Fold this sequence. Notes:
By secondary structure, the chain is mostly helical. The protein has helices at residues 5-9, 48-73, 98-104, 109-126, 144-164, 168-184, 194-200, 204-225. The longest helix is centred in the first third of the chain and has 26 residues, at 48-73.
Amino acid sequence: MTEDPKxxxxxxxxxxxxxxxxxPRRIAFILRRASPHVKTQDDARVMTYPTALSRFVxxxxxxxxxxxxxxxxxxxxxxxxxxxxxxPNPAKAPWYFLGLQELLHYxxxxxxxxxxPGLVVGALIVIPxxxxxxxxxxxxxxxxxxxxxIISAVLVLFCLFLLAYDVIVALVPxxxxxxLMLWSARFSSxxxxxxxxxxxxxxxxxxxxxxxxxxxxxLTVVGTFFRGPGWGWILPWxx
Length: 239
């Protein structure tokens, strides 16, 4: 059986710039010494099992051993048996609720006990349903002037609100994060210093989360160490 001369003269080769993700259906004629060359790029993903699950198990075991080790070395700061005839002053909540108890010192119970926790819980429920800055784009990458005006106005109004209720412990972290956020607007991705480029690259979610963590830490520390009888201001070394 002889080959057709026309088929011998025709050179058929696979596409060099083909992408199987964009065009998964194709027909290729492969000769004896030819092979299809397809360029593709795998996503940066890992399998849940065993890669991610094994890390979770290891982290859980490390945290468990650390807590057991701390419990063996340090006694829990428990007080005496509760006496209904003697109410401790001040009556402090557990440490993870002291931030909320500190807010109750400044705001009405409806605001600090219902409105603020309700907004936080509602945001945690609603935010995952929105496509909010998935790529982690810099806050100042687009519409810098417009965003600068909006953030400045929100920051001023929020600071005035805290000053109206004399919430100085919450005002200081707010001013710190606000100044850093506005200061980062002066930089760009080509700034000479690494710190300036790092501040410029942070998205809005980073600034909000940083403010929330610093605020929670400050309120918890103040409620734990700086509040005495009658929820008055004391120094930690005072009895």
